[in-house]
User: Fold these one by one.
Assistant:
Number 1:
Amino acid sequence: MSRWKAAGIHLAFSMLIVACAFNAMLLTIYPPQYFSAGGGNQLLLILLAVDVVIGPTLTLIVFKSGKPGLKFDLTFIALVQLAALLYGCLVIADARPVFLVHVGDRFHLVRANQIEPAQLINVRYAEFKTLSWTGPKLAVAVMPADVQRQEELMMSIVAGNDLNFFPETYEPYDQQYPRVLRNAFPVSDLIAKFPAHRETVEEVLSDARLEVQQARYVPLSLLPEFRTVIIDATNARVLDIVDLDPW
C-alpha cells in the first residue's frame, strides 16, 4: 500500500468520525437554530483541523510499507488523534448553550462554562437548577424584590455582569413572555432596514405559517457580535435565530 492510499483511508475514517460527532452535536447540545449563534462553526473548524487534517497528514509522513515499527507509529497517531477528538468534544460540551435569557430589550445566550455550580443553589425554579444537554432553556431575568440583593446585583451589572449570569433571577419564559413582547420590535421594521435579508426573514415566517405582522424580533447579544431572534407576536415563541445584526 502506498502512503497516499494509507493517508486517503485514514482521511475517510476521520471524516466519518467527525461527521458522526457533528450530527450528534446537532441532535443534542446544539440544536440547528443555535448552532451558528452558539459558536458551532468555530468549534467544527477545530475538529476538522485536528482530526481530518493533522491525523491523515501524519500518516502520509510516516507511512512506508514494510517499515519497521510502522504499526507502533500508526497506533500512536491514532491514539493522539483520539485524545484530540475527546478533548475537542469536552471543549464543545463545556461551551454548550444552556440558557437563552431575555434581559431588558434583548436576549443573551448563556454557556455552561459561564455558570458556576454554586450559582444554581439559590435558583427558585426546578427547570433552571441544572445545565441543559439538549439545547438552551428559555428564561426571563427579573430583578429580585429583596432590596439588598438588588443593590448587590446592580454592582455586578456596573462591573459588566448582567442578570443573564445570575440564574437566581430567572423566571419561566411562558409566564413572563409579555415582558419580551413589550420590548420586541416589528419584523416589518427589520425588513425595511435590511431589504437584502428579506428572503431569509420571510422563509422563517413561512415555516412558522405566520404573516409579517404576526411576528416580532429581538436582538441577541453575543458580545461583541449580535444576531436577531424572530418571535411569534402572540406568545413570544422563538421561531428562529437569523445571522443578522439588527443594530
Number 2:
Amino acid sequence: MNSLQPSPAQERWLTLAARWPKYQNSQSVKVGTAGWTTVNFLIRCAFFLLGMIAAIAVSAICAIAFHERFKIIGGVALLLAGEYLIVGKRLAAAGAEEALIVTAYVLIVIGIITVDHSDDISVAFGVAIAIILAGMRVRNPLLTTLGAITFSFAIAFSLGFTIWGASPVIPHVDLWVSLYCYMLAAIALLSGVRQFQRPSYDRMLDWLVIAMPLMGYAWSIDYKSSGFRWDTHTAMQWYIVLMPLLFATVGIFLSLRRHTHAPLFAAIGCVACVAYELRNLTGMPLQWRLITWGSLMLVSGSIAEQLLRVSRHGITSRQLDDCNTVLDAAEIVGTTLITPVNNNTIVEPTPMEGGGGSFSGGGASGRY
C-alpha cells in the first residue's frame, strides 16, 4: 500500500462516503478507507481558505527572515507541512493540505527560476507547471484546470501577447492559444473513454472538458475584439462559430453514448457561445429573436421530454426518487461498483470435516 496517498480502492470508498454521508460511520466504509478521512465541500472550502492564510503568513515570515531566498525556504516549509497533513494525518481532499501544497510548489518553482533573474515568460510557464503538478499531487481538478488555463496565458506571452494593447511579435497569437485550448479539451474528451481506477482522474478530465472549450472561445473573442472585421476575415468567422459548434455536437454524442454529464455540460456552454455569435443572423429585432428562439427551445424540450418518457438506452425523463426501493438499489449498485475487485483471488469454499470426535465418540473433538 502506498502511504503517500490513498490507494485507488480507498479513494473509491472515500468517494462513496462523500456521496452518501449516512454511510460515513459504517464499519464497511471505515475498513475500506483504512484511516483516510475527508470532509464535505463547505468545510473543504473553509480549510482551503485557512490554509492559504497560513501559507501567506509563513511566506511573509520567511521573507523577513531570509530575504531573497525566502521562496525556496518557505516553499520547502509549506511542502513539509502539507505532506505531514497528507501522510501523517491521512487527510484526503480536506482543503488545508491542498492550499499548502500548491503554494509550496509555486514558491519553489519561482525561487528556482528566479535564481538567475529569468524573464517573465519562464516564470509564467513555471507557475503553470507548478499548479498542474500540485493538482496532480492532491488530485484536485480545480488546480489542474487552473494550471491548464495558466499554461495558455504562458503560451500567449511567449508568442508576444501583451495585455496592454501593444502589437504582438507573432500575428494571430490569440488564434493559436484558442486552438491549444480546443485541442486540450478534445484530448480530455477522448481520454474519457478509458475507465480509471481513481475517481479523481475522471473529475480532472471532466473539468478540462467543460472549461477549456470556453477558454478557447474566450481567446477567439479576444482576437475578434482586436481589430477583427467580419468582411475581411471569412475564415476566422467560420472558426469562431464552427469550433464550439463542432465540440458541442461531439460532446452531446459522447454524453449520450457514455451516460456522462461533463460532455453534456460542455456542449451546453458551447451552444450558448454559438447562439451569442449568431445573434445577428436573422436581422430581426431583439424582442422577436427572444420570442422565436425561446419558442423553438420550448418546443424542442417538450418533444424530447415526451420521447424520453420511455427509457432509451438507459436515459429517461421520469423521476426515480419517488420510490425508496429504487434509491436503495442505486446505493447497493454504487457500493458494488466502487468496491475493488481482485480477479486473481479465488475464494475456495471451506470443506466440511466429518467423522466423530476424539472424546467419547460424540463429535466433541474440540475442532471447529
Number 3:
Amino acid sequence: MLRNFAGNTISLLVLLLIFIFSGCTKFKKDGQIKEPGVVLTFDDDRVDNWYKNLPLLDSAGVRATFYICKYNRFTLEQKNKLSIIQSHGHEIAYHTTNHYNMMDYVYKGKHTIEELMKNEVEDGLKLMNLDGFYPTTFAYPYGAHSGVYDKMLMRYFKSVRGLNGTSDYSKSLAPMEKNEVIYGLVIDKNGGRSDESILRLMNSASENKAYAVFTGHDINSSISLSVTKGRLLKIFNHAKDLGLKYYTVSEISQ
C-alpha cells in the first residue's frame, strides 16, 4: 500500500516537472526574437504629422516606436492623437521632458545628474503615466550620452537609444539579444545617407539575423528633419522582398 502510494507520488512529481519545464519553452523573452527585422523610430513631439501619416505606416503593416518629448505642452487633441497612434500597435516611448542636450544640462548648465533625472525624466514620465502612457524605452536628445547616463536611465527603462553618427553602418545593427544600448541610423533628408546604403543595412540585418534600427523625425514634410515618402516606400518594399518583420524597440530590448 505504502509502496503504491510512494510510486504514485513520484509519478505525479515527474509529470508536474515535465509540465512546468515544457510550459516555460512556450515563452520568448524580450530581446530573443529569432527572426531578423526592421526597427523604425521617430523622435520628438511631431504627433500631428505622425497621425496624418498613420495610413502610410498601416499600408505596410509597420509598427514603429515614437519617442516623445515636450509632452507637458501637448494639447488635449494631441494627446488623443497619440492615443490613437498607440492603438494602431505603435510603441510610445520617452525622449525627455524638454529635449535638452543631457550632457550640456549637467556640465554646462551646472545641474547634478539627480536634478537631470528628476526634471527631464521623472517629471515628464509622471505626466504621461497620468494619461495612460507608460514608456519603457528611451532615446537621447541629439544622441548625446555616456555610459554613466546609460546606467542611470536603466533604473527607468529597458533600453536607451543613441544616434549612429559614424560611417560604420553596422553600429545600427542590433543583435538578437542584450539590446540595452542601440544606435539609430538617421534616415531624414539631412542625415546624409543614401537610399542604397540604407537598403544595404537591411541586407545585413537579413544575412546576420539582426535588427536594422532607423531614426527619423517628421514623415514626408518639407523640413529637413523629415524622411520622405519615397524613402519609406523603398524601405517597406525591400523589407517585404527580404521577408523582414517590423519590431518596436521594446520588443528587441532586454
Number 4:
Amino acid sequence: MTSESMNPLMPQLDRPAPEFEAKTTHGVKKLDDYRGRWLILFSHPSDFTPVCTSEFIAFAQAYAEFQDRGCDLIGLSIDSISSHLAWMRNIKEKFGVTIPFPIIEDLSMKVAHAYGMIQQGASDTSAVRAVFLIDQEGILKAMVYYPMSNGRSVAELLRLLDALQTSQKHHVATPEGWRPGDPVLVPPPMNVDDADARLRQGYDCIDWYFCKKTI
C-alpha cells in the first residue's frame, strides 16, 4: 500500500473543489456544469439502506428550497446507475417521492477518493456521509462528515448554505445557530476612529471588537 493511499489528500476549504466528470442518473455531469450556481455534493454508503433512503427523501422534499437559493444537488455512492435507478423507482413507489437531482455512479471510487469520502476504519469500499458545499466559482466553502450510522440534517445544510451565502455577499460572519433575519457579526474595526464611529452608528456592540448588525 502506498503512502498516498494510506494518507489520501483531502480537499481544502477556500480552494478549488476537485474536478470530476462522471456518469449519473441524469447523464454525464462535470463540476464545471455547475459554474455560476452553488452545488452541494453529498455521498452515501449504499443504495436501498434505511438511513440513506430517509436522507434522499428529505433532500428531495427540500429541493425547491435549495433551488430558490441558486443551489443544485448531486448525490454519490459506490453503486451502479442500474442500482440508483432501481432505488429511485422504489422510493417513488413506496413513499411517493421523486428524486429530482442526479446521483453519480462511482464504481471506480475516483470521485470518492478525490473528495476524501472513503474513510479508513469506516469502510474501504463505501463512502461515508460526506457533504461538500461549493460556491458559484467552484470554490469549496464547507465540508461536513457524518458516520455511516447517523443521518444528516437537511435543515442544517440549508441553514449553513444561507450563512455561507450571507457571509460571501456581505463580508460578515455569522454567530452560532444564525438564521436569516438574525444579526450578523461585522469585522473588527481597523483603527480607533473606526471603532468610535461604529459605536455611534447603531451597531449592537458588546465591545468595540464584538459588534452585531442586522442586514
